[in-house]
Amino acid sequence: MAELRRNELMDFTGKIVLVTGASRGIGRVIARLFAENGGRVAVHYHQNEAAAQETLRSLRGKGHILAQADIADPVAVQKMVDAVVEKMGGLDIVVNNAGIHIEHPLTETSYEEWQSAWQHTIQTNLIGAANVIFCAAKQMIPRGGGRIVNVSSRGAFRGEPTGPAYGASKAGMNAMGQSLAKALAPHHIFVMTVAPGWVETEMAAKTLNGPDGDAVRSQSPLGRVAKPEEVAYTVLFLASAGAEFLTGAIVDVNGASYLRT
Ligand code: NAD
User: Fold this and answer.
1) Which burial class, exposed, middle or buried, applies to 98 when counting CB atoms under 10 A from its CB (0-12, 13-18, 19+)?
2) Which domains does the chain show, CATH number per domain?
3) DSSP secondary-structure letter at 123?
4) Segment 56-80, tens digit of pLDDT
5) Is the CB of 254 under 6 A from ligand 1?
6) CA-CA distance, 175 to 172, in Å (whole number)?
7) For ligand 1, atom 9, which residue shows the shortest CA distance?
8) What is the side-by-side strand order in the sheet with 16-19?
9) CB-ligand 1 contact for 30 (6 Å cutoff)
10) How many C-beta atoms surround the C-beta of residue 170 within 10 A?
């Protein structure tokens, strides 16, 4: 893993940050980079408490906590956000990173499997993120504002032939972020989105280590996929002081593998 360095332009000292899905992958690295730059982090996880503890132990500084919830469960989300605010004394930044990708190619999928994939994916990636934003924004508004960064995907633009629910969930996330950027700006809550292409994580490992790995890497003229640090860096930039006017933006982090107009 590349070394995470302190960046004075991205000083999050005193900021309280909730990162969903931070027990591993991109979320873990986002949590580390915020902590490295002064933030106090609530490390959200679903089931793997041991991995979340590992993330927690790896964070620089003090005052970080764990926060458990099934993001697909609206009641659990409300309890989790309220607990973070109570334990940490507020909430300044939320990163909606938790997400799932279920393969469900139409030609090889039963109708039951098809419905299950759509329901789980939309409930987790889109409705879950919407509920986190609702609960967080209700806390941020009386406190004077905040920042929300959603982790979307290149698939929203390029298409996801074998996982159409995933592509749709991320396109929905993009549209939700744009709508809420407009709705919440008067409350000084700024909403941005990062759209990575392939990233070296466990979610992508099977494809990257399989027969299609080289073809995936060659989609970028850099001949590789992103490192989680590169996505994390963009998330911190969007959450940093001075980036307010990027509200509503969707920033591609895909190594020029897909250039949308
Ligand atoms: P990952 O599978 O390593 O991490 C996803 C995290 O989300 C895990 O910690 C998991 O526990 C959590 N999560 C999933 N369902 C949950 C639920 N119901 N409740 C609570 N937490 C839940 O994947 P990653 O690659 O680190 O992905 C992070 C984000 O980046 C995802 O939103 C993903 O869609 C997006 N993304 C990843 C890639 C890639 O190639 N890896 C590309 C584009 C976008």
Assistant:
1) buried
2) 16-253 (3.40.50.720)
3) I
4) 999 999 999 999 999 999 999 999 9
5) no
6) 5
7) 21
8) 65-68, 40-45, 16-19, 93-96, 146-151, 189-196, 250-253
9) no
10) 27
